[in-house]
UniProtKB/TrEMBL annotation:
Pfam families: YqzE
Stated name of the protein: YqzE family protein
Membrane listed as a keyword: yes
Segments crossing the lipid bilayer: 22-41
InterPro entries noted in UniProt: YqzE (IPR025622)
Alphabetized UniProt keyword annotations: Membrane, Transmembrane, Transmembrane helix
Region called Disordered, residue ranges: 1-20
Length: 49
């Protein structure tokens, strides 16, 4: 409680911004690429229907 509320809030936001996502940390880039691929396929099916 030494730092003012604004400073603590700013530090908390900064830590969140630096922290990498859970899936990337544990599984690498593959879940992200699979999600993007699935979203792309899903959108293409919607357009063709």
């Amino acid at each position: 409680m030494d730092a003012p509320k604004e400073d603590r809030k700013q530090q908390k936001q900064q830590r969140r911004a630096e922290k990498e996502p859970f899936l990337n940390k544990w599984f690498g880039v593959m879940p992200l690429s699979a999600a993007l691929f699935y979203r792309n396929v899903k959108n293409k099916r919607k357009k063709s229907s």
